[in-house]
Amino acid sequence: MSDQAAPAVALDPNEAALAAVERALRRAGGFALYLMRCNASALRREALGRLRERSSGSGREIVEIDLDGPVTDLLSLLRERVASSGPAPLAVSLSGLELSIPASTDGGILAALNVQRESLPSVVPCPLLLWLPEYAMQRLIVGAPDFYAWRSAEYQLAAAGPAGAPAIWEELPGTGWQVRNLLPDDRERRRQALEGMVEELRSLPPGAVRDWDLSMALRDLGFLALGRHSLDEAQRRYDEALEIDQRLGNAYAAAMTYHQLGIIAEERRRFDEAQESYEKSLETHLRLSDEQGAAATYHQLGNVAYLQGRFDEAEEWYQKSLETHLRLSDEQGAAATYHQLGVIAQERRRFDEAEELYQKSLEITLRLGDEHDAAKTYHQLGGVAEERGDMGLAAEHFRQALTVFERLDDPYSAETAREALARVTGKP
């Protein structure tokens, strides 16, 4: 095999989410509630168009309901629209509900959603795609926790904005794991936009909506700092976000923040502190029936056990995480857990098993365009080849990892790959 690094795979970062939604629609045998986090109406329209293309062979339509004003009786509106749509639709897409969700989160449509949720299957005999921008989703989580916990799955679509974008969520480039794959200039642009957003929000009068947005921006800045291994800055950002989350009673956001604080403690090898943070996060995710959040925390609890040499316990946590990710069609989460199960197999010197698990992870990350996680797996494959004495193949994989880490400006991971490459080639 050649020593050249594999070419970069550039895919639409929303493709994985749309593929998962399409699979969910295809498999659904009746009502299901899919929450769609999406801040840009243009992106929502584009996504719906692509979903219609994907499902064109089913012979069934996606009924679109785009509200242009507040509603007080959502159940009656859905009943009327679905009844007039003709044959049983493949799904109902509902957008614009944020116009009915008050900033106070008390009463109104949110209280109705909590009470009427069990009547929805009799009104909508197919999956319901409920589109909400992030600020409205946060209000729904706080004001209608029973309805939110009742969801079947949750998906997020992200739009990238141009340089110098104003401080609004839909114009920030990249979200979540996609941020790891941004080029340095794009990451810096995102950091500057978030810093501007925080400054702008601090200048506004205190209030629930302002504080929700401030907490989100602080968590995003913490994520960027964590990616740079700036642990003190990340801790400071997350601590402030957590104080806001707890003051607002925003349990879901607090669970996400505890999760990230656990990662910081894990990086510092403060394993008892990491375990405590993860357990706080997990308790809330389970209470809110947030399986995806729970799966991510199972994974991190596996990391804590692995780093302390408790491989059997780590494997149990990873398997629990993997089962949940696969059930939710969460390919990104499954890829990360396949990778860690490969690490456990490698530690046990089960190299064939490790290689198989790494290849499963790599196939997903390359297909999704997650180059950073793919590079981590190339590095581990290099380690397997080195253990087997195949220094040429090991060098190839370490070069593949190093090329990506350098291009994405991850000096910590790049140095690790550089040291491994020098070790197997004998060249400093």
Sheet with the most strands? 5 strands, parallel
Structural class: alpha/beta
- Number of extended strands: 5
CATH topology of the domain at 15-156: Rossmann fold
Helix share, percent: 55-70%
| Low-confidence runs of at least 5 consecutive residues | 1-11, 160-175
Span between termini: 23 Å
Sequence of secondary-structure elements: HEHEHEHHEHHEHHHHHHHHHHHH
The assigned CATH architecture of the domain at 15-156 is 3-Layer(aba) Sandwich
- Name the beta content range: 5-15%
Mean pLDDT: 85
The shape is globular
Task: Write out the CATH superfamily name of the domain at 15-156.
Answer: P-loop containing nucleotide triphosphate hydrolases
CATH class of the domain at 15-156, named: Alpha Beta
Tell me the number of helical segments per DSSP (H or I, 4 or more residues long).
Answer: 19
* Rg, Cα atoms, Å: 23 Å
Give, in spatial order, the strands making up the sheet with the most strands.
2-3-4-1-5
List strands and helices in order, with pairings.
Blueprint: H1 15-27, E1 32-37, H2 41-54, E2 62-66, H3 74-83, E3 91-95, H4 108-116, H5 120-123, E4 127-132, H6 134-143, H7 145-149, E5 153-156, H8 184-202, H9 208-227, H10 231-248, H11 251-267, H12 271-287, H13 291-307, H14 311-327, H15 331-347, H16 351-368, H17 371-387, H18 391-407, H19 411-425
Parallel strand pairs: 1-4, 1-5, 2-3, 3-4
Helix pairs in contact: 1-2, 8-9, 9-10, 9-11, 10-11, 11-12, 11-13, 12-13, 13-14, 13-15, 14-15, 15-16, 15-17, 16-17, 17-18, 17-19, 18-19
